[in-house]
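Section 3.1: Structural characterization of target chains.
Under the original work plan, the team committed to producing a structural model for every single-chain target entering the pipeline before any wet-lab resources were allocated. The record below documents one such target. The sequence was received from the expression subgroup and is listed exactly as submitted; it comprises 309 residues.
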Amino acid sequence: MTDAADLVAVEAFASPEIAEKLTQFQEKFPKTALPSHQPPLLEAKNLSFSYQVGKPILQALDFTIHQGEMISLVGHNGAGKSTLSHLITGFLTPTSGKLLWQGTDMGNDSIKERAQKIGYVLQNSNQMLSKNFLFDEVALGLRNRNVPEAEITEKVHQTLKICGLYPFRSWPLSALSHGQKRRAAIAAILVLDPELILLDEPTAGQDYRHYTEMMQFLQELNQRGLTIVMITHDMHLMLEYTQRTIVLTQGTILLDAPPEVVLADKQVVSAANLKETSLYTLATLNQLTDPAAFTAAFIASEKEGYDGE
């Protein structure tokens, strides 16, 4: 191959020599077995929703979210991602089908009852913040539950420490950065001890440093046992931080698979308006036998801090 002046132009990096090097790299990170599933936490059974008869928004969805998973929910605008979140949290009622929580039908649960186990963080955190001071914001849900004030103080301080916000416990919310307000919105839900949290575009509007800090924070929460589902258009987030991706298109589940498998399927990428990654392009240009495995190997190398030899 000739020298490439633009490293972003991945199409320039195709040759037998590069293919050999990529294969050798991939062999350093063989496929790992998928983690064994924990007990089911949330299940959708033939779940459908429509505002008007004959115009379904979601059609016959079937999926299971297990305890401790970290899942990305992706798809084109209007695919039904937000509608599904509103069904899970109880803001909307299914037209047909049902949602099960640990095997029990949630159909009769109120929004308040669902909020005791499921938290929902909007894309615009400011829409969720109503108090002037950070402590009061995080304490609000506990106060609404009539928890004793001493217990509230202990619980809020503990949660702020987990979220990296304890030094700002007495600060006004207006003095916090965008990323800190995002964490404050999460802390206000986390303090209520949910088992599942839904986040809509968790890294929207953040630079790389704050993006990384947010995702590492969410990983830590996941490692503590919190089940996390993220609505996202960010393919890097999907690849590096989630173990499973549910792809929605036109109100149906197109694919439910590991993220590298999703992004290696050209038909799925096209139908869901996803962006093919340069890793997959590089692998296919060099005719690797398993582009999805190469992508998975690269992500594994990132997590291990691979530095070559």
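DSSP finds twelve helices and ten strands in the chain.
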